[in-house]
Amino acid sequence: MVGASTLTYNFIPVKYNRWMRLAKRDIDFAQHALKLKAYNIAAFHTHQAAEKALKALIEGSCESPMKTYVLVELLEQLNILGYEVPTNIKRCCMELEPH
């Protein structure tokens, strides 16, 4: 789980929830694609879900997400905001990056 120990801003659940609903939809598509053995489509939607989840944290924290599809750049933005992103999450984002 991504944590933030000493954040100096308010968290806005409405903005977070909007992005997370979209991320959940991409996860649903990815799972369906896996059942069809459409692995490239599953990877694409998994990347989309990760991107939207990272943007949920950023926008929920009263910041505008970077206009990027690069997960590592969004992780860096979270780092700047004071989030401590676990190593396993960073590693998963790096693995998804080519998709």
Give an account of the 3D structure.
- The protein is mostly helical.
- It has one domain.
- Helices cover 66% and strands 0% of the residues.
- The chain has four helices and no strands.
- Helix 1 runs antiparallel to helix 2 and helix 2 (39-60) packs parallel to helix 3 (71-80).
- The radius of gyration is 14 Å and the shape is globular.
- The two termini are 23 Å apart.
- The model is unreliable at 4-8 (pLDDT under 50).
Question: What's the SSE blueprint?
Answer:
Elements lengths: L12 H23 L3 H22 L10 H10 L6 H10 L3
Helix pairs in contact: 1-2, 2-3
Provide key terms for this protein.
single chain, mainly alpha, globular
Assembly classification: single chain
Count of β-strands: 0
Query: Averaging pLDDT over every residue, what do you get?
Result: 89
DSSP strand content:
under 5%
Q: Helicity range of the residues?
A: 55-70%
Total domain modules: 1
Pairing-aware structural class of the strands and helices?
mainly alpha
N-to-C span = 23 Å
Main sheet record: none
Helix and strand element order: HHHH
Radius of gyration: 14 Å
Q: Any low-confidence stretches, pLDDT <50, length ≥5?
A: 4-8
Give the number of helices: 4
Globular, elongated, flat, extended or rod-shaped: what is the shape?
globular
